[in-house]
Design a protein that fits this description.
Strand content: under 5%
Distance between the termini: 145 Å
Structural class: mainly alpha
Number of strands: 0
Helix content: 55-70%
Number of helices: 3
Largest sheet: none
Order of helices and strands: HHH
């Protein structure tokens, strides 16, 4: 029966150098990929920043939707009720009906007494 001999491959210093160069190149590629992942365009940092902006925009949109709903309710109220239109005209514009009289009550100015006399006993 024939005997198979296994040859031992004795690596020379050139083979070891080649392996070290390949390993070093792979490590450099890995570092560059990690750099792009964490700090590059479309990386982790940018994604977090964009997620924060999206959340802020959502909150602003919610506030605007609420404001729009309030304004829509007010518009519908003004369309449906003449009383609401009249109330706004009176309060905001100071309007009165043609057959009404407007009386403005002005409070008296505060009493300024320089002599220490407060007006009591007169």
């Amino acid at each position: 029966m024939p005997v198979m001999r296994v040859q031992r491959h004795s690596s020379s210093w050139a083979d070891k150098l080649n392996m070290r160069i390949i390993t070093l190149m792979l490590v450099i590629v890995l570092i560059l990929l990690q750099f792009k992942l964490w700090l590059g365009e479309g990386g982790y940092t940018e994604v977090n920043r964009l997620e924060a902006r999206v959340e802020a925009q959502r909150q602003q949109n919610d506030q605007l939707l609420q404001r729009n709903a309030e304004l829509q309710a007010e518009v519908e109220d003004l369309r449906d009720r003449l009383d609401a239109v009249e109330e706004r005209a009176r309060n905001e514009l100071g309007l009165i009906k043609p057959d009404e009289k407007f009386y403005q009550v002005v409070p008296p100015p505060p009493h300024n007494d320089k002599n220490g006399d407060n007006g009591e006993g007169r």
